[in-house]
Each structure stands twice: as C-alpha cells, then as structure tokens.
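=== Structure Prediction Worksheet ===
Name of assembly: unnamed complex
Input type: mixed (protein and possibly other molecules)
Chain count: two
Listed entries:
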Amino acid sequence: MSVHPIIAALRKHKAGTILIAAQIALTLAIVCNAVFIIGQRIERVHRPTGIEENDLFLIQQQWVGAPSGDDPAGAEKLDAKLREDLAALAALPDVAAVTPINSLPLLNSSWNGAVALKPGHGDFDGKARTTYYFADERLMATLGLKLVAGRAFDAGDVQHRAFRDQSVAPVAMLTKALADKLFPDGQAVGKVVYFDGGSTPSTIVGVVERLQVPGTGSWTNSFTWYSSIQPVRLNANFSRYAVRAKPGRLAAAMRAAVPALYKVDPMRVIDDKDGVRSFAEIRQSAYRADVGMAALMGAICLVLIAVTAAGIVGLTSFWVGQRRKQIGVRRALGARKVDILRYFQAENLLIAGAGTVLGIALAIGLNLLLMKYFEMEHLPVPYVLAGVAVVLALGQAAVYGPARRASNVPPVEATRSV
Amino acid sequence: MFGYYLDLALRSLKRNKALTALMVLALALGIGATITTLTTLRVLAGDPLPGRSARLFYPQLDHGPREGYVPGQSEPDMTMAYPDAMNLVHARRATRQAAMALAQAKIVPQRANEHPYFTNGVMTTADFFALFGVPFKYGGGWTADDDERRAPLAVIAEDLNDKLFDGADSVGRTVRINDRDFRVVGVLKHWAPQPRFYTQGLGGRSYGDGDAVFLPLQSARAARMGPQDLECYSNLTDINHIETEPCEWLGVWVELDDAAAVASYKAFLDGYARQQVALGRLQRPSTALRDMMAWLRHVQVVPDDVRMQTYLAFGFLLICVVNTVGLLLAKCLRRSREIGVRRALGATRRAIFGQFMVEAAIVGLAGGVLGLLLAELGLWGVRHQPAEYASLARLDLGMFALTFAVAFVSSLLAGLLPAWRASLVAPAPQLKAA
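=== Predicted Assembly ===
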C-alpha cells in the first residue's frame, strides 16, 4: 500500500489530523511521566526494610511522675522500670521476643548523626551520615535481622544510660551498606569507628545485611541504608518496645500487651491510637502518601487514555461517514474489504506516529520541567518506548471499529449521489 | 436570534447523543480534576492571617561555620539560638515581637479515672497573642514581666478548656502540665490559621488543628519541656541547658507597620549579625527578613505532590479541550450541507459562527455542571485521604464561580476553530452536491 494517497487525503483534513496528533502527543507526554512517577513510588514502597515484618509490633509509652533520668539514681530507677516492662512482655504466652528500641524502620522518628574513621571534630574523612538504633541483645531475634559478618550483641555488651547522656557504647554493629562505605575492602569487623565526631572509639563486632533508617522523607535518601546499632538500653521517662509475637499470634499478643504493662505500673500514658501499632500499620502510614499519589496518577492515566481513544473514534467515524462515496468507488474499482480496513489503520498509524514523535519531545520536556521544580529523576528510555507502544496500540484499537464500518461500505455506494 | 441558535444547538446536540455525552464528559473530567487540585492548592497556599500577614516578618540569622560561606548567597538558618532570639525580643525594635518553639505538653487530668495524655503546646513570649491577633474567649495573655518572672501561667485552647473544665470560664484555675501546676490566664476562641505558619521550621505540622496549650517560654523550660526540633551546630556539653548550648530551636516573628519600618528593622538585624560576628558568637553575617507569604513560599509549605497534581490536572484539562475541539469540528463539518442551506437562505457568516459558538457554550455549561459534581466528588476523596490538610479541602463560592468560568472559557476556546470553519463553508458547492 502506498502512503501517498493517505497523505493526500489527510491534507484535506488538516485541522482534524493536527488535533488527533496533538492529543496523542499530549497524552503520551503525560502518561509517560505519570507512569514513571507511579513506578518510582511503587519501587519506594516495595523496598525491603531488612527486618522480618510479620508478627512484629511496637509499643510506645511514657511513665507519669517518673524521675527525669538526668542524675544517675534517676537513670537506675528508670532502668529498673524498663526491665520490669520487658520481663512482663517477654512472659506473655504469645510473645516470642522483645527488645527496648529507640525507633524502627519507617517510623519517622529518628536520631541521626555521623560516623567517622578518625576521632575528633572537623575531620570529614570517611565520614558518613547514619541513624542510630539502640537496643539490647534480643534485637536480632526480635527484628529478624540477618547477620552477614562477625557476631551479634550478647548480654555482656548491653549497657544502659540516660537518654540525654552523650556517651557512646564501646561496641557497635553496622549495616552492610554503611560498613562497605566506611571500609571498601569489606573487612569492617574488628575495626574502630567514632560517632558524632567524638573521641570514644567503638569497635564493630558485627555487620547486618540490611536495616532501613526510620526516616522516609526525601532528606534521608542519601543514607537510607546507613544504620548503626549500639547495645544500649536508653533510660528516659518514655520507652519503646519492639515485640515479636509467636507466628500467627500477633493480634493476641497486641491485645495482651497493654493490660500487662498497666499491671506492672498503672501510672503511664499509652496512647489509644499510637500506643500499640503493628509493623504493618507503621508501614502503611509511612507510605500512605506514596500509595495515594500512585493511585491518583494511575486513575489520571486511565481516564486520559479513555478520553484520547474516544476522541480518535469520534473523528475517524466522522471521516468514514464523510468518505462513504469514495470508499464505494474504491470498492467498485476492485479494492477488497481488507484494503479499506488497512487504509484507515495505516492512516491512523501515520497520524499517531507523527503524534508520538512530538509526544516524545513533549515527554522529555515535561520531565525536565518536573526535574527543575520537583525531586524527579531522568525519565528512563524504556518508559518512553512503552508509552509509544501503548499510544500506537491505543490508536489502532480505537480506529478498528470505525475502520471496520468503513470496510463494510458496499461498492454500490459509488452509484448513489451521497 | 439567540433563542433560535439555542434551539438549533439543542437539536444538534440531541441528534448525536453519544458524541454530545462524550464531549460533555471529557470536558467535565478535565474541569473536575482541575478544580479539585486548584481548590486543594488554594487552601494549602492560602493566607493564614488575612489582613495581618503583610505586616508580619520572620527574621533569620546564620549559625553556619565560616567555611563555605559565600557573601550574599548563603541562606540563613531556619531557627535561632536562644540568646539571639531573646536579644531580638528584648530589643523591641518592632511594633511587636515574639519568640516561640513547639513542645509536647503532658496534661494530667485532675479527675479520677482519666489517663494522662499528650497535647500540642507552644512555648512563647508575651506578645504572641497580640502579634498574631489571637482571639480570646476568656481572660487574656500574660505580660513581658510574667515572662521574666518565669510565672507558671498558661493560655489554653477552647477544645482543651471544654475537655478539662467543661467549657466554663477557667481563668484562675489550675492545669497540670508536665507534672507542674500552671494557672490559666486565658482561654482562646478557636484559632487554627492554615497553613500553620508559626510552626514552620520548628518541627510542627503544616496544617490541621490548632495548638492546645500556650506557655511562657521560660516557665515551660523550667517544667522541662523541650522543643520539638533542635539543631545543634557544634558539640553539646549539656542537652538540658539548650539556652546556653550551640543549638537553634526558636523562631521569631516581628510586626512591622510600613516599608520604612521594614528597612530600618533589616538594617538593625544586619547590624546585630555584624556585631555578633565581631564578638565571635556568629561566623556569618548573613540575615533574612521575609514577610509571611514569602516565608511560606520559602519553606515550601505546599507539599510537592499537591503542586505536581495541579500541573498534571491542567495538562489533563488541555487534552480534554483538544479532544472537544476535535469532536466539535467533526460534528460541525458533518453538517456542511445544513450550513450551506442556511447560508443560501440568507444567514451571514457571523450568524453561523454565533450558532456554533452557542452550541459550544452549551457543551461547556453542561461540562461545568458535571465538572462541579466531579470536583465535589474529588474533594470528598481528598478529604478522605490521610493527609493532615485533608479536612480543609472544600469548594468555596469563588471556586464555584471559577469552575463555570473555566468551563465556559475552555468550551468557547474549543468552539472557536469549529465555528470559524463552519462560517467559511461556501453555500453553492454544498447545495450542488445535494
């Protein structure tokens, strides 16, 4: 089939041709970028935190009238209270393990600092941002972390100190990502690091495979996997407990936890809403905005595609109606039905092809604009190619109905005066 | 004549029900999406204190190190260290001035069987209420003297007053906060400016409910309340005494009545920064003095996602309009013969043009009505999102009018090309073909 008659015909329908091409171009530009945003959000939501998330929940509470913990005697009292709580939780029939902890991945409550290879302030050599986790020796069992080198903390490593005390534990564990950044040779265990530009060394005893930081905002993007863990029970007038329920017993363990704590000491605040939360809830609330945005973008894409398809159907139908006589003449001169069908399909392919060329340029332009004003990465080529394929397929699907109707125009139409 | 066009347009629209429905629906979707996102954006980027915001300014100083300082380019810090905030407040160079930080306040109810709970508090200085025009239901604020005396006084919000005192005039009564007794001196009327401008930079939410407790800064600190956000720019020795540590945690707002006052305050601020540099307390002399709306833009209080959605919605509307142009064009060219007959019978080009514009306008109005319903539906969806601004998303009268303006204008724009093409139809060939 020659393209020439198609182009000659389209010349007579400049406005309609340009409109369809423009609509396809705009649709391609928006759909490409929207799908890219969806892809990014989905990727973000599905990255593993490094912990075993099932059967895990978090309790946060605050004691009323407790000492401040700023003097040693107060810290001792708080630690006694903390250990009582831990014992009570560990004794529950549905609880497998429990650890005091200052935060959890995705909790968006974090204590951030820096870790360096050399002591002292102002030395930025080998320094990396990190988030601190403080927990006891049952951390690995409770969170289900994977040890990849060295050893986990044992009970002898664990210290306790006041929350506001700035001292550093003599031993620490790092995530593999952080260990590899500080020690590119991969030999972190046994080496010494300094936290927060301090001068107290901490020896790395073990490396865990993965542990995400609590923050999920974009400001944490540069250190998402750079967690460090110190074997410390922090003593303050508030505390958090990560609790692993026995398999399948999460709900029961969560129900039993609050009464058990009130039994130990009724003078405390446990928020009805945020006091006890399963990790699934924590995850959900951390990524709610991302999931919402992805859903919205998805909806916009679908509606856009539907509107564009409808526009193509409408205009092509009109063209078919307008050209009934010409189609009849072609049929009378020997064109088969399939030739007529192919003609309209080729015509659409030509228009959509022109539209996609413009659309690719628009998609890239829009992407650059979004990059300028928002946190956005370069639009990868596969997204553009997929968008082009979708838009071309959409055009063919939309034109099929009207083209079929055109191919059914009988040759006798040629003899009628329209 | 208009009535006749209307009749013609309605007849024509009825003839192609599917096509008409498609045009109206596409336009309505575009308008619905645009109005939904615009309303959300407008609420989020709104003026928290209309009539007052232009006189409120947020001074900033820079505690960064000398390294990396580029004169005229380094952006000063979001918050201030205690000595600087207090110096600015005590200098009284503005009409009014207040320093503030946010803190969690632990409320211990005095009645039996009620658990203690946390609520949002503000630690601030005496001018806060007059500065922001905060309305009182009972009593009033405290004085600068009370600030200095560390008087254990409190101003509470209406909600908290309802909860603790069943809405009675509680001035003079005691509320237990962070295990200390505070005497209530004032109860606010509902006060929740949106966005919550004074929480920006202090680690607070940007939208949502107002705060429940307002305490004099130094008495709150005496009750061991800590700021929500604390940035330390050098090593700490004692985190309990952040007043003397190299930490920033306070925001300062000042009221300046005219341009001269603004210029003179900026000069004062610059002078203060230079003086502190000379004293060695600061390393960088850069300052900033933004008015409220500029400050809110600077901290990008409107979430990125919301702004992006608005742009996308406009793109969406553009596609819908292009789509409507195409369909209207198809429709009107199909009626070339009818146009030819009308022209032959004496209708002018203007008349044909008018007739098709009326048809486009009807599509636009129908699209607007449907778009309004879709926007209400969209906003209902926004309200049921878990975002902190969710409950604010409501259509107001201005947006209601804007919906129709957008619908009308976009449909007229969409109608221009088809109507113009229609008016160009020459009568003779059409009649001959028939």
